[in-house]
TrEMBL record:
GO terms for cellular component: cytoplasm. Its cofactor is Zn(2+). It holds the Pfam family Peptidase_M18. InterPro entries: Peptidase_M18 (IPR001948), Peptidase_M18_dom2 (IPR023358). It is an enzyme of class 3 (hydrolase). This is M18 family aminopeptidase. Its EC number is 3.4.11.-. One of its GO terms (molecular function) is zinc ion binding. It comes from the Bacteria. Gene3D superfamilies: Aminopeptidase i, Domain 2 (2.30.250.10), Zn peptidases (3.40.630.10). Belongs to the peptidase M18 family. Keywords: Aminopeptidase, Hydrolase, Metal-binding, Metalloprotease, Protease, Zinc. PANTHER family: ASPARTYL AMINOPEPTIDASE.
C-alpha cells in the first residue's frame, strides 16, 4: 500500500472512531473483511491451523492473530484504543444561569485549555433493558455539534494570558441549550433511535465521551502533517491493524489494542488485565509450547513519542530529540518506564536498515518524568521480549494533536519486514 492510500484510510479511521468502542468496532469490521474469524471468549475454541482469528473484550479491546500453529516466533504489535477526553458523569444535567450544561470528568492526562471554544459532540455506549427483559448495549454517536465550553472573556480575567488555570469541576462543563425542557433520558432514547434501537423499556447506564467534531486532515505546505483528535493512540492502532491485515496466514503475527492505558491499564480490558495472556494460553494450551512461543516472540509496543517542539526545544535532551517525518522513534528509559533493551532495539534497527527506513531515539530529560506505555506492563506480565517505539507527535493529549504524514507509513513497512 502506498503512502497516499495509507493516509487516506487513516483519516477515515480517525473520524469514524470517537471512542474506544467505535475504534474496536471499526477494527473488527476490518478484520472481518480481511478474512479473520470472530471468536467468543465465553465459548470453547476450536482453532484450525492456517486460519486467522480475532476476539474482543468489553467492546473496547481487540486481539487479532494468525494461527500457523507450528510457528511460534510471533511478531506482536500492541497499542491502546483510549485517549484523554471529557467523560459524562452518570447524572450529568445541570440547569442554572439560563443554560443546560453537562457535568464531566477528565479522563487521563488531559490538556484542558484546548477544549474551550470547540464544537463538541458526544459518543459512546448505552446499556438498556428491552421489553423481553434483556439487558442490551448499543453504540451511539451524535455526530452533530451539540455542545461547547465557552472561554471566559479576557475583560473578566486579566490574567488569562499569564496564569490560565482550569478547575476540573467548575470550569469545563459543556453547555447544550437554553431550553429548560431538556431531559437526558429523552435525549438518549433519541440517539438510540438513530441506530434503530426502539425497544427501550428502561435506560440503565452509559459510558459517553465528548469529542471535537473537526475532521482529521492533512496540514502543511506540502501536506507535511496530519492533524486530528486521538492520534494518541489510534495512530498506532491503525498501523497495527493494517499490518496484520497485510500478512498471510503462514506468518505468525498478533495485534492487540487495549483500553484504559491512559488511566493505568488496570482493568479487565486493559494491558494489566488478563486479556492477552488468556488468549495466548488458549492458542497454546501445552505449557512448554506456550513458553517456547513467549521466549521466541517479540512485542512491539507502539505508542506516540514527543517530537521536539520548535518553540520549546529546551524540553528535550538535545541528543535524543525526535523530529517529525524523520522516522519511527525507539524509546529508552533507564528505569524501565519503557521496555526497550539492547536486544529488541537491535532487532528493530536491523529490519529498518534492511528496508532503508529511518529511525530515531528518544530519551526524556533526566530532570523530567516520561510517559507510560503498555510495553513494561506486557513484558512484566508475560515475560516476552519487548520494544517500545512511537511516532513523533506534537501537542500530545490535546484535543487536536499533530504528527507527520510520512512516519506512520514507515512504521507499517518496518513491522511487515519482521521475519
Amino acid at each position: 500500500m502506498d503512502k497516499k492510500d495509507f493516509n487516506e484510510g487513516l483519516l477515515g479511521f480517525l473520524d469514524a472512531s470517537p471512542t474506544p468502542f467505535h475504534a474496536t468496532l471499526n477494527m473488527s469490521m476490518m478484520f472481518e473483511n480481511a478474512g479473520f474469524i470472530k471468536l467468543n471468549e465465553e465459548e470453547k475454541w476450536e482453532l484450525e491451523e492456517g486460519s486467522k482469528y480475532y476476539v474482543t473484550r468489553n467492546d473496547s479491546s481487540v486481539i487479532a492473530f494468525t494461527y500457523p500453529r507450528d510457528a511460534k516466533d510471533y511478531t506482536m504489535v500492541g497499542a491502546h484504543t483510549d485517549s484523554p477526553n471529557l467523560k459524562l458523569k452518570p447524572n450529568p444535567v445541570i440547569k442554572e444561569h439560563g443554560v443546560v450544561k453537562f457535568g464531566v470528568e477528565s479522563y487521563g492526562g488531559l490538556l484542558l485549555n484546548p477544549w474551550f471554544d470547540r464544537d463538541l459532540s458526544l459518543a459512546g455506549r448505552v446499556s438498556y433493558l428491552n421489553s423481553k427483559g434483556e439487558i442490551k448495549d448499543a453504540l451511539i454517536d451524535a455526530k452533530k455539534a451539540l455542545a461547547i465550553i465557552p472561554s471566559l472573556a479576557i475583560h473578566l480575567d486579566e490574567k488569562a494570558n499569564k496564569e490560565r488555570t482550569v478547575n476540573n469541576q467548575t470550569d469545563i462543563c459543556p453547555i447544550l441549550t437554553t431550553s429548560d425542557d431538556f431531559e437526558f433520558e429523552e435525549f438518549l432514547k433519541w440517539q438510540l433511535s438513530k441506530v434503530d434501537v426502539l425497544d427501550v423499556k428502561e435506560l440503565y447506564a452509559s459510558e459517553l465521551s465528548f469529542y471535537d467534531t473537526q475532521k482529521a486532515s492533512l496540514v502543511g505546505l506540502s501536506d507535511d502533517f496530519i492533524a486530528s483528535a486521538r492520534l494518541d493512540n489510534l495512530l498506532s492502532c491503525y498501523v497495527g491493524m493494517l499490518s496484520i491485515c497485510s500478512v498471510d496466514e503462514s506468518k505468525p503475527m498478533l495485534f492487540i489494542a487495549s483500553d484504559h492505558e491512559e488511566v493505568g491499564s488496570e482493568s479487565t480490558s486493559g494491558a494489566s488485565g488478563s486479556f492477552l495472556e488468556n488468549t495466548l494460553r488458549r492458542m497454546f494450551a501445552d505449557y512448554d509450547e506456550y513458553m517456547q512461543m513467549i521466549r521466541t516472540s517479540t512485542m512491539i509496543s507502539a505508542d506516540n513519542a514527543h517530537a521536539i517542539h520548535p518553540n520549546f526545544p529546551s524540553k528535550h535532551d538535545a541528543n535524543h530529540a525526535p523530529h517529525i517525518n524523520k522516522g519511527s522513534v525507539v524509546k529508552v528509559n533507564a528505569n524501565q518506564r519503557y521496555a526497550s533493551n539492547s536486544k529488541t532495539i537491535s532487532k528493530f534497527m536491523s529490519v529498518a536498515s534492511e528496508l532503508n527506513e529511518p529511525i530515531q531515539q528518544f530519551v526524556t530529560r533526566s530532570d523530567m518524568g516520561c510517559g507510560s506505555t503498555i510495553g513494561p506492563i506486557t513484558a512484566t506480565r508475560l515475560g516476552i521480549e519487548t520494544l517500545d517505539v512511537g511516532l513523533p507527535t506534537f501537542a500530545m493529549h490535546s484535543i487536536r494533536e499533530l504528527c507527520g504524514s510520512d512516519d506512520a507509513h514507515s512504521l507499517y513497512k518496518i513491522i511487515l519486514g519482521f521475519k
